[in-house]
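Technical note accompanying the year-one report. For the benefit of new consortium partners, we illustrate the data format agreed upon in the data management plan: each record pairs a sequence with a structure-token string. No post-processing was applied to the example shown here.
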Amino acid sequence: MKIIDHIKNAAGKTLFSFELLPPVKGQSIQGIYDAIDPLMEFKPPFIDVTYHREDYIYKQHETGLLEKVSYRKRPGTVAICAAIMNRYKVDAVPHLICGGFTKEETENALIDLQFLGIDNVLVLRGDARKADASFIPTPGGHTYACNLLEQVFNMNNGQYLHEDHDTSFSTNFCIGVAGYPEKHFEAPNLKVDFRYLKQKVEMGAEFIVTQMFYENSKYFEFVSNCRENGIDVPIIPGLKPITSSKQLISLPKLFHIDIPEELSEAVTKCKNETEVKEVGIEFMIEQCKELVNFGAPVLHFYTMSNPGPTKKIAEAIF
């Protein structure tokens, strides 16, 4: 079922969902099940599965020369989505990213997803490789999320990359995109950011999932600005509880977000990491209560495949 239909069928009730990381190469799928099982009591209608681009390592040969080798640390997104749907009878939402994939590889992945009965995709540009200062497109791939979105939309209308393909077959994906309540870090200002977001909706995006945030006022303002800019699709807040004191530095650095003074001061006063986790959970419980009262369609948690903190929050909300 499509995300927009899940939201419509909920008739105003806030739903629960979460995002998973594929296991590191070589690990079994049992790790995925262990991350899902504790959260199934909250009846998520869908579960997101991230996609990760290739990275590079350097292997040294006996001659002393270094060889640059491409590898993918967390493969298996399509297979994991199929396994989730088969085992739990819920919808899986794979991420689609620009980095690391040619247009042909993207088309093949979309054909596989349609064949498996997957109805939803979350279209993203994706992050830069660790060794790169900024995002570098893959040769033969897409540079921006809107380009990738256009390819998905075209396939929904039976348009493929090559004329010899059977154009009588079309996909039927519900397309989601990312939103940034605190502005995408590469956008010069919020006005430009909203212009690109509106463009994506006009191109066929049917729902938005936000970057994590810790001040609800920023989400409320983001929703209001979207509506004023003619963006009327559901806006799902993305959430991640603070679980470590190190995240006061790492999260703003990696995701370009602000941590409110109230939360940062409470974490700083903690005597140990156990107290930090408790503070983070309690803060997010209150944050979620306010979001539910506001009418957020879904509370979407970035679990990083660690279900414990999210479970405690969900127990207090759902």
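Partners are asked to follow this layout when depositing records. Residues 109 and 165 are 15 Å apart (CA to CA).
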